[in-house]
Amino acid sequence: MRHFNSHESLPSDDSSETPPASSFVPSTDLETVMQHFAEIKRRGLPYETAAARIELLQKILAQMRADSEGSSEVRASFQHELAIASLEHLNAERIQQVDIALGACEEALQFYTLAHYPSQYASVQVTLGNVYRERAVGIRRDDLERAVACYQEALRVSTLADSPYEYAQAHHGLGQTYQLRSEGARQDNLEQAITCCREALGVYTGETFLFEHASTLHTLGSAYVRRVAGERRANLEQAIECFRQAEAIFTREAFPREYAQGQHFLATAYSQRINGEQRDNLEQAITYYQQALQVYTLDALPFEFAGVQNNLCIVYWQRIAGERRDNLEQAIACGREGLRVSTLDSFPFRYAM
């Protein structure tokens, strides 16, 4: 998924709300639309402005279809932006948003071919890889293989020498996807994930791409939590170090969602940690999960809220401190909170877990 980066406008200090797309008069004039689009993006981080961007883009694309106006290149550009915004829209209708992103990428690629628009083609391939990685319907194994193929296709164009940022994007996507991959040996996939993350970090340094640097550290830390090779104790300590480095960048004030994600990652690592006392590690994990829930609320980020509640359920079941009866009751309560979002219809895999 595309993240905030140094090529984009910084979040505005203006505390006013993001202007709704409905406040703009639809226009197929490229300059006017892009001015409206840029105004929306300046009002916050990507996930904060995603809904308004989607509304504007869908109105413009609908008007272009109805009036048969606009060049194919402009339509393809808007379709790609719609795909990006749909992936960044963190609401309860996650399956529908991912499907919108998939359709938008496929439409964009009808015009952005490798032969005629290699740079745009590669960029859409990265977004399409993100779509397949996030997809929650269909056969999971097949979607992850499609994601890997998309990132590798992008790397046919985006080389380290010619397109370093896009090269790093594709490698970060591969780092995320190889961790989830079921095809092939799990140990090999996780080692590949670590290699890809380190390749991305070669471009995403803390000096040039601060956000991407921290985001890739999250992905690398997750790979170390899952790692099969090496000593388990050392892998978990490496993961914690990655998450702590990212925490220095992803503060709650500047990047609340990423801060909460980091707290969730730290909690997961501490819940499995071998160093130190197990009682203390589990208490620290609970603290980190509770800090994540200060941002991951049911209303604002329901999917993430459910994930933390599910993990809290496990930690309370494992808890050593406190009364066993109370811990089990707390575990049940957290599990039920998670099921408010992870229903059989919406997220069958999570519901079953």
Care to describe what's here?
The protein is mainly alpha-helical and 353 residues long. Helices cover 67% and strands 0% of the residues. Helix 2 (46-67) runs antiparallel to helix 3 (72-88), helix 5 runs parallel beside helix 7 (164-180) and helix 9 packs antiparallel against helix 10 (232-247).
Distance between the termini: 26 Å
Structural class, judged by helices and strands?
mainly alpha
Q: Please give the share of residues in helix.
A: 55-70%
On the 0 to 100 scale, the average pLDDT is 89
Oligomeric composition of the shown chains = single chain
* Largest beta-sheet characterization: none
Taking all Cα atoms into account, the compactness measure Rg is: 21 Å
Q: What is the global morphology?
A: globular
Percent of sequence in beta strands: under 5%
Parts with pLDDT < 50 across at least 5 consecutive residues: 1-19, 348-353
Give the SSE string: HHHHHHHHHHHHHHH
Strands, count: 0
* SS field, number of helical segments: 15
Detail the topology: elements first, then pairings.
Layout lengths: L29 H12 L4 H22 L4 H17 L5 H18 L6 H17 L5 H15 L9 H17 L5 H16 L8 H17 L5 H16 L8 H17 L5 H16 L8 H17 L5 H16 L8 H5 L1
Helix pairs in contact: 1-2, 2-3, 3-4, 3-5, 4-5, 5-6, 5-7, 6-7, 7-8, 7-9, 8-9, 9-10, 9-11, 10-11, 11-12, 11-13, 12-13, 13-14
